[in-house]
Amino acid sequence: MAIQSFGAAMQDDCAPFSVRVGGREHGGYFANIRIGRDSVPDGWYTYDIRHDDSGNPCEIKNGYIIVNHFGTFFTQSRLPLEEGESLYEGDFDYEFR
After folding, report:
1. What angle do CA 73, 38, 2 make, to 5 degrees?
2. Which of 41, 40, 43, 60 shows the shortest CA–CA distance to 52?
């Protein structure tokens, strides 16, 4: 499992991305790598995204996803997830911008 720093992801590997949960949109960025949580500055939150067998995002987790890792969403808007909790397909929508 390769992990990249937050700074490297912001510089080299991010795209505008948003997640909608319960009618609220959370804007941020998507990186198709794992971001080391110890490199994330205060005021930013990171969530790993898992894909299903068709390659579509099906889970967003406040923690690391090992199998079927789609990418990492990082935002300055906290999602309604405690450490280790997940939202599953149908509980969230996403959009690349």
Report:
1. 65
2. 60
4-21, pLDDT tens digit by residue?
Answer: 899 998 887 789 999 999
Residue 97 has pLDDT above 90, yes or no: no
Q: Where are the domains of the chain?
A: 3-96
What's the CA gap between 20 and 76, in Å, rounded? 14
Give the residue-averaged pLDDT of 24-49. 95
Question: pTM for the whole thing?
Answer: 0.92
